[in-house]
Amino acid sequence: QVHLVESGGGLVQAGDSLRLSCAASGRTFSRNIMGWFRQAPGKEREIVAAINWSGGSTYYADSVKGRFTISRDNPKNTVYLQMNSLKPEDTAVYYCAANKISVWSVLVLTTSGNYDPWGQGTQVTVSS
């Protein structure tokens, strides 16, 4: 079976840092655009960041720009999300996913329907 497994979430205080990891198994995703999404209670799932196959192109939501960094290690089939200066509004379940389309455009990156498979999610809670 193909799996994407997120880890690294937890309960932290505002201003703290976390690094999320997304490990792929069952097949390689080295040529896929990979994305991080999050879903807060009562809200829709939203894009956080995305990265192309080489790591040379990245995208960030305005709400996390300058605080979060996405990276990938293709030989390890792993994608990371370094989250610094965390805020209470960052509280959400964070998901990683593989994009089915190779075109690098904002519309492709930000459309959740373009991603499959998805990980199970990891909870990030930031207290004030």
Separation of the first and last Cα atoms: 40 Å
Radius of gyration: 13 Å
General shape: globular
Sheet-strand content, in percent, reads over 45%
Classification by helices and strands: mainly beta
Unreliably modeled segments: none
Order of helices and strands: EEEEEEEEEHEE
How many helices? The count is: 1
Mean pLDDT: 94
Question: What characterizes the major β-sheet?
Answer: 7 strands, mixed
Q: What is the tally of beta strands? A: 11
Helix content: under 10%
Sum up the structure in keywords.
four-stranded antiparallel β-sheet, mainly beta, 4% helix, globular, 128 residues, single chain
Describe the protein in words.
This protein has one helix and eleven strands, in the order E-E-E-E-E-E-E-E-E-H-E-E. It is mostly beta strands. Strands 2, 4, 5, 6, 9, 10 and 11 form a seven-stranded mixed sheet that branches. A four-stranded antiparallel sheet has the order 1-3-8-7, with no helix packed on it. It is globular. The mean pLDDT is 94.
Summarize the structure.
With 128 residues, the chain is mainly beta.
Task: Please outline the helices and strands.
Blueprint: E1 3-7, E2 10-13, E3 18-25, E4 34-39, E5 46-51, E6 58-60, E7 68-73, E8 78-83, E9 92-99, H1 106-110, E10 115-118, E11 122-127
Parallel strand pairs: 2-11
Antiparallel strand pairs: 1-3, 3-8, 4-5, 4-9, 5-6, 7-8, 9-10, 9-11
